Every structure is written in structure tokens, then in C-alpha cells.
Amino acid sequence: MTTDNTVTGDTATGDTVTEEAVASLRSTADPRLRELLTGLIRHLHAFARETRLTQAEWERAIGFLTATGQTCTDTRQEFVLLSDVLGLSMLVETINADTVAGATESTVLGPFHMTESPARELGASIDLVGDGEPCVVSGRVLSRDGTPLPGALLDVWQADGHGFYDVQQPGIQPAGNGRGLFTADEEGRFRFRTCVPSPYPIPTDGPVGALLGATGRHPYRPAHIHFIASAEGHAPVTTHIFVAGSDHLDSDAVFAVKESLVQDFTETDDPSLAREFGVPNPFRHARFDLVLTPDRS
Ligand code: BEZ
Ligand code: FE
Predict the structure, then answer these.
(1) How far apart are CA 27 and CA 6, in angstroms?
(2) How many CB atoms lie under 10 A from the CB of residue 276?
(3) Domains in the chain: boundaries
(4) How far is the CA of 120 from the centre of ligand 1 (A)?
(5) Counting atoms of ligand 1 from 1, which one is nearest the CA of 165?
(6) CA-nearest residue, atom 2 of ligand 1
(7) Which ligand is located closest to the Cα atom of residue 220?
(8) How far is the CA of 251 from the centre of ligand 2 (A)?
(9) Which pLDDT belongs to residue 194?
(10) Which partner for 134 in 87, 127, 273, 279 could form a disulfide, CB atoms 3.0-4.6 Å apart?
(11) From ligand 1's centre to the CA of 221, what distance in Å?
């Protein structure tokens, strides 16, 4: 039977199916969609040929992808997690990051930026539970030439001291725990109180966890705090700050560590500073600047 998809008039064979599948895209109106699908078909076919994929393996892969989709909910994105553990999220992030020298490097958004962070005053605590190690995070938001950016916005989120985000523990953690939206002052300064984050495992109770188990990989991410920093006239940056010395810095389950993002959370024994910041003494203090790239630079 001849259809619009037929290029040769012959039945597709292992030798011709790739070119036939690619040719079937000839009427695709959107040229970028055609380019992407052509690349996808060519790479998938090359993969199947190179590995001599068996029928049973193909069925298993379809079952795995089906289970991955069935695990997704309004508050869980198992496909993003799959992309993360395969290193694809970080690759796409890196391909698209046009970080100019001197600006803060970006890294993956991750799946837990799913609720709006509550606006908080500078100096406020994002740790609504208060059972972790006290910590102050402070610094400035600067333009690349060192000019402070007053009014810059800082969206912050982190797991608690036990390694869970508020959205993973509804009814256990208060909503908004570990989250805050801060506005930098007239000198671009920001400051907030929190607890020192701990390393945590990405969710392992779904297909992605099974994949990690089957490949002998651990599911841990090194301790970190997420930031999205934005300011007028500048490109926003989505990034993390990693805790220097944390476990798993060299084996992040999602490959998102960049050297420049690792910061000291310095042990600080200074009763008068602790009083000024409103934290118990001693405390840990992370100090760093976030540097944004002006638009059109
Ligand atoms: C996170 O840091 O929140 C995260 C990133 C990728 C996968 C899972 C969690
Ligand atoms: Fe995280």
C-alpha cells in the first residue's frame, strides 16, 4: 500500500527504514521541529544498530518509560529526574548558559522550585522549624563591573537539615519552610538566616531510583542552597551555592556541581555578630556575591 510516508515504494527494511522515517518528515512546517525530529530518528536508529537492541530490551525500555510517565504527578516530575540522572539536564543547561567571565555560573533548576517563595524581610529566617545548625547567608548582588544592584530579587529554596524540601513533607514541614523571596537593599546587599543544608537523596521510590539501583549509583546530591537572582537590565541566573566540604561534591547524582559555586560556610564564634544577626552563637556564615550580566553584553 502506498502512503504519504512511502519514499521508495518498497517495504521498509533494516537498511532503508532510517531514510524512510527521516523522509516522512518532509512536510513538517516548522523547520526546527523537522531538524530536531530528524536528529532524534537518526540517533535512535544508530543506537539500536550499534547496541543490536533486542525486542525484549525494547519492550523493557517502553515499560520503563511508561512507568516514568505514570509516576509523574502535579508535585513530581519523574521525566525531569530521568533527564537529571542521565546528565541531559546539565548538558542542556551548559549548552545554553552564556555565562560571561566574572558572572555567577548557572546550574540546574531541579524539580523543587514548584511553589512561590514567600516574600521575606532582609535578615529574616527561612528555617521555620529551627532544628538545624544555625547559619547566616549574606552578600551582594552586583553587575559584572562591580556596581551593586539595589532592589535585585533573590528567590531562595533549600532542603531542611534532614534533607527534605517542604513540598516533600506536607503536614510535617510548614509550607514555605526553606524558601524566601528577598529584595536586596540600596547597596545590593542581601542577608538571611537558615540552617546548614545537608546532602540529600533525590527521590528513589520510582523508576529512576530503580535505574540508579540497577547501575550501582548512589542517589545523593551534595548540600546546597538554590538561588534565582534577577535585577532590572540584567540576565537572571538560576544557580546553587554548594557547601564546601559536603559529601558527594565529586559525585553529584545529577552532575550539577561547578567549582565556582562551592562556598565556605565558615564556623563563626562571635557573640556580638551572632546577636546582630539574631542567631545563636556559634553559627556558620556563608558570604558570597552574586554577579549578573547586563543585557546586551
Ligand atoms: C534539587 O537540587 O533540588 C534537585 C535537582 C535535580 C534532581 C533532583 C533534585
Ligand atoms: Fe536541591
Answers:
(1) 13
(2) 11
(3) 9-53, 82-294
(4) 24
(5) 3
(6) 110
(7) 1
(8) 15
(9) 97
(10) 279
(11) 7
Q: Which CATH number applies to 82-294? A: 2.60.130.10
Nearest to 126 by CA among 169, 82, 182: 182
What is the DSSP secondary structure assignment for residue 148, as one 8-state letter?
Answer: B
197 alpha carbon, closest ligand: 2
Nearest CA to ligand 1 atom 6: 110
Distances, alpha carbon 97 to alpha carbons 33, 172, 180, 237, 249, in Å: 22, 37, 25, 9, 21
| Long-range pairs of 73-81 with CB within 8 A, sequence gap ≥ 24 | 75/114, 75/167, 76/111, 76/203, 76/206, 77/111, 78/206, 78/207, 78/208, 80/111, 81/111, 81/202, 81/203, 81/206, 81/208
Residue 72 has pLDDT above 90, yes or no: yes
Which protein residues have their CB within 5 A of the ion that is ligand 2?
110
- For residue 254, report the distance from its CA to the centre of ligand 2, in Å: 10
Least confident interval from 53-62, 70-79, 151-160, 238-247? 70-79
The set of cell numbers assigned to 28 is 513538517
CB atoms within 10 A of CB 232: 10
Q: Contact at 8 Å (CB) between 67 and 54?
A: no
